[in-house]
Design brief:
By secondary structure, this protein is an all-alpha fold. The protein has helices at about 5-25, 25-30, 40-65, 70-85, 100-130, 135-175, 185-205, 205-215, 220-225, 230-245, 250-280, and strands spanning about 90-95, 185.
Length: about 280
């Protein structure tokens, strides 16, 4: 391969060295490859898997117990979008079943415990999987998981801070326009739809991460992503249509950031290709 020009070396030299250091296999890695995970009997791998599962279940249970006392506060937080939408006092979230409080309590424990225990569960999975991976493969997984956590939190924050408020305003206004005024919301149904929308936003923002991982592994090229940009935008708006409440504004709020993330993904994959070329 042709030697990079001095300008190119100056522009990408540091980035290329960092890329080579963290995301490529070096001669030192190959020299110590046999030390990563020495061959062991199958029963030892099975015992490690059992320990991973047991620890994850215990962490999940501990997370649910920690969240349980805060269930009333979580319920209050889930009703905050109504206040942000200016509907407090006009629309009341009310239990219409004698088991409504218990059902919401259990949902809060399950969802909250899962979220709280997720870092520990990922740590246990890493302890089980990482010994069989090379250094640069471990770095890639940590890199992708870090970005994935950031995108998930960003999607949930966007939904909780903006989308839910606007969606509730539009849906309540539409009900009034249809002469079906809404003054009482059934608690179980309200909590269920709020949690589903929050989760949908968090997971939807993982879509560019999948493309980034494929591009970082060299499976998809930036030119391919750029060539299929139109189809990707249509797919993003279609996904947003199914994952958001039935109002156009919520769909736009989800779809536009995803389109921006898609463009950023193209840029990052292209950057990876350039760094790989400089490394070679």
């Amino acid at each position: 391969m042709a030697e990079p020009t001095p300008d190119k070396k100056t522009k990408h030299g540091l980035a290329a060295r960092l890329f080579r250091r963290f995301f490529t296999e070096t001669d030192e890695d190959r020299a110590h490859e046999g030390e990563l995970d020495p061959p062991r009997p199958f029963i030892e791998h099975f015992i490690d898997l059992r320990n991973c599962i047991v620890r994850s279940v215990l962490a999940w249970g501990a997370g649910m117990l920690i969240v349980a006392p805060f269930a009333p506060w979580v319920m209050h937080a889930l009703q905050r979008p109504l206040a942000q939408a200016g509907l407090e006092g006009q629309v009341i979230v009310q239990g219409l079943d004698v088991t409504a409080g218990f059902n919401i309590f259990m949902s809060t424990m399950l969802w909250g415990g899962t979220i709280l225990a997720l870092p520990a569960i990922l740590c246990f999975l890493a302890q089980f999987i990482f010994p069989g991976l090379k250094r640069h493969e471990r770095n890639l997984i940590l890199f992708v998981l870090s970005i994935g956590l950031f995108l998930f939190v960003g999607g949930v924050w966007l939904c909780y801070g903006f989308t839910l408020r606007l969606a509730l305003q539009m849906l309540i206004a539409f009900n009034a326009w249809m002469n079906v005024p809404t003054t009482i919301l059934e608690a179980n149904a309200y909590v269920s739809i709020i949690l589903k929308i929050l989760l949908a936003f968090g997971l939807a923002f993982q879509f560019p991460l999948i493309l980034l991982a494929l591009g970082w592994l060299g499976i998809i090229r930036a030119e391919t992503l750029r060539r299929h940009r139109g189809g990707a935008i249509i797919l993003i708006f279609t996904i947003a249509m199914f994952l958001t409440p039935p109002d156009i504004l919520s769909q736009i709020i989800m779809a536009v950031p995803m389109c921006i993330l898609y463009e950023i993904t193209i840029w990052l994959v292209r950057l990876r290709e350039r760094l790989a070329d400089d490394t070679e």
